[in-house]
């Protein structure tokens, strides 16, 4: 059942802010957050997006299109996380290093444009996994209104559907760096290999998926278990395309898709 009370609390939150900048990726959470903020505050809302090799081009294009359609002021900036000291070595606090840099820039752009509050799309379900990036958000004074108002991903999807947002049933997304084993060096070439591999599978109709990269040449595909048969049916095309990208080995993870599976390497130590 949809929580109208939570939505009312979120609307009150934005009215109390007076103006707000939303860190906007174009995903389920940030699209819903931006829509509610814009409905409440109109031109006093600013969407800010980071353009980075960590985010697939298709997601960047969708974010730009949404803001144009809704008439929302949208700023975006280029950032290369591989140039941030310590990031490409891929330590366990990689997300902290990246979020600190990105949200510092978002906060600066917001203040330069006279915006009082900077918000991200973290929700109540984000507290159940290892997420060092949330520490950076707290340190910078970034607000997480969906989390503060108790929204779960289910709440967000249900209300997004009612509001007519096309993102209501979009699969959960994460930056491409999450496809790497901690401690394995992140390179631009391997990021592009992962992006192209996932784009290929999306074009074949697979929705919820990840292509994890291990070493220089092994791809581990995660899809929902009900898609196993389809993956195996298309295996020759998938193997050949992945090989053209540089993957010598292509594997299917028989545990199926699960968010944050690379964090399992931490508990396995």
Give me the CATH architecture of the largest domain, please: 3-Layer(aba) Sandwich
The coarse silhouette is globular
Q: Cα-atom Rg, whole angstroms? A: 19 Å
CATH uppermost class of the largest domain: Alpha Beta
Key attributes of the depicted protein:
269 residues; alpha/beta; Rossmann fold; Alpha-Beta Plaits; 2 domains; three-stranded mixed beta sheet; 11 helices
Would you mind describing this structure in some detail?
This protein has two domains: 4-169, HUPs (Rossmann fold), CATH 3.40.50; 176-267, 2-Layer Sandwich (Alpha-Beta Plaits). The chain contains eleven helices and seven strands. By secondary structure, the chain is an alpha/beta fold. Strands 3-2-1-4 form a four-stranded parallel β-sheet, sandwiched between helices. It has a three-stranded mixed β-sheet with strand order 5-6-7, with helices on one face. It has helices spanning 4-17, 28-41, 57-70, 94-112, 133-139, 145-148, 153-162, 188-203, 228-233, 235-245, 264-267; strands spanning 20-23, 45-51, 73-78, 117-119, 209-214, 218-223, 249-252.
